[in-house]
Amino acid sequence: MNLNDIQQALRESKLDGWLFYDHHRRDPIAYRVLGINPAMCTRRWYYLIPAAGEPQKLVHRIESRNLETLPGATHEYSAWSEQREKLGAMLAGKRAVAMQYSHLNDIPYVGLVDAGTVELVKSFGVEVVCSADLVQLFEARWPEAALASHLEAGKGVHTLVRQAFEFIRDAVRAGRTIGEYDVQQEAFRQYEPFGLTADEPLAVSVNENTGNPHYSPTAASSLPIRAGDFVLIDAWAKLRQPGAVYFDITWTGFVGEEVPSRYTDIFDVVKEARDTAVDFIQQAVRAGRPIRGYQVDDAARGVITRQGYGECFVHRTGHSIGEDVHGNGANMDNFEMRDDRRIIPRTCFSIEPGIYFPEFGMRSEVNVYVEERDARVTGEIQPAIIPILTL
Fold first, then answer.
1. Per-residue pLDDT tens for 154-210?
2. β-sheet bridge partners, residue 59
3. Superfamily of structural domain 142-390
4. Can you give the residue ranges of every domain in the chain?
5. Who contacts 349 (Cβ-Cβ below 8 Å, separation ≥6)?
6. Which of 75, 224, 257, 387 qualifies as a FRET site for 28, CA 20 to 30 Å off?
7. Within a 10 A sphere around the Cβ of 152, how many other Cβ atoms?
8. Closest Cα to residue 349, out of 374, 376, 372, 373?
9. What angle do CA 279, 367, 345 make, to 5 degrees?
10. Is the model's pLDDT at 1 over the cut of 90?
11. Long-range contacts made by residues 258-263, C-beta under 8 angstroms, separation at least 24?
12. Under DSSP, is residue 97 helix (H, G, I), strand (E, B) or coil?
């Protein structure tokens, strides 16, 4: 935790403090931002970082050492009445504090503090403000080592996707029966030799299953992959090392030598939406013009809507990427939620517009990293659907 940086951000945001609270490890953000890992958390604790001055801690007497590594004065309680009294004293004179709370649950990634605790803080005459912008500053920005790990993971992920398409090609040419699950498991076995890890195996889908954005095959659900089929591969992974961050892409292919127009026409719309969103971000960052996550979603969604497929774009344009594949920075979203967080330097997110029908779905996904005065796609950009049998 960098106390000086947090207090500077609080002053710039015109907030009186940032109040951290937890019980039974419900708020992982608090532990990561504060850099603590107490052995036991069966009692409520509070940690108040003021915009200026010394932080204050409130801990239960039987877990009095939970915040001992953090700077500030320590207050202890046993009874609930004593807890309320001392929390009120800590907050005395404060007008507004940030908490892991989101108004109307607009940003559920940050809405981690229970409603009762928010009510308790408000009962002291203190306004509770969403901490999402602060969380992004101190949780979502990457150090140089994280960016390096992302780029290295990207090399492996792109190779694995190409090898998966080649695995399909070789099986079809040899007349060997394979399915979605076979391709997934073959590719997933290669994660370890590439030094990669992931929370779940990559997703491989064919034909109607590609119309389900979150489909992942199992041995029971797996469809066969044959000549003339449309294939989508969504792969995400990170290096097996502390502090590594994810790389997350989606590519599509057709099991044949020439891709039918029914697929290429839809890919071209998705591609235009993807590239429009990336261009919108790059132009704004280069011009020093502030933009927010929902505006990027509007840019991509506008393309698909103008082409008549708006109802077929059933998810947000992109998500923040970090040590978890879905990070705590701004999402490119004005659909599932209205994410009005600013896009800031040293953050990364996906751009992945899609169009989905009952018979097939199309998505193209890249990762965008924002620098101080520029933004870039960190991996390869798919220019067209891959004709798998020509590889």
1. 999 999 999 999 999 999 999 999 999 999 999 999 999 999 999 999 999 999 999
2. 76
3. Creatinase/methionine aminopeptidase superfamily (3.90.230.10)
4. 3-139, 142-390
5. 293, 318, 319, 320, 321, 327, 329, 330, 331, 332, 343, 367, 368
6. 75
7. 18
8. 376
9. 75
10. no
11. 258/387, 259/384, 259/385, 259/387, 263/230, 263/360, 263/362, 263/385
12. strand
Span 65-85, pLDDT tens digits: 999 999 999 999 999 999 999
Neighbours of 138 (CB within 10 A): 19
Q: 269-300: per-residue pLDDT in tens?
A: 999 999 999 999 999 999 999 999 999 999 99
Q: For residue 325, give Cα distances in angstroms to 72, 140, 186, 200.
A: 34, 12, 22, 10
H/E run at residue 99: strand 96-99
3-state secondary structure of 9: helix
Kindly report the number of other CB atoms within 10 A of residue 35's CB atom. 10
Is 306 in a helix, a strand, or coil?
A: helix
Hey, what are 374's tokens? 């520029």
Secondary structure letter of residue 139 according to DSSP: I
Mean of the per-residue pLDDT values for the chain?
97
CB atoms near residue 133 (< 10 Å): 19
pLDDT in tens, 116-148: 999 999 999 999 999 999 999 999 999 999 999
The stretch 97-102 carries a mean pLDDT of 97
Query: In whole angstroms, what is the distance from residue 314 CA to residue 391 CA?
Result: 32
Instruction: Output the six-digit token pair for 65.
Output: 């050492």
Domain 3-139: homologous superfamily in CATH = Creatinase/prolidase N-terminal domain (3.40.350.10)
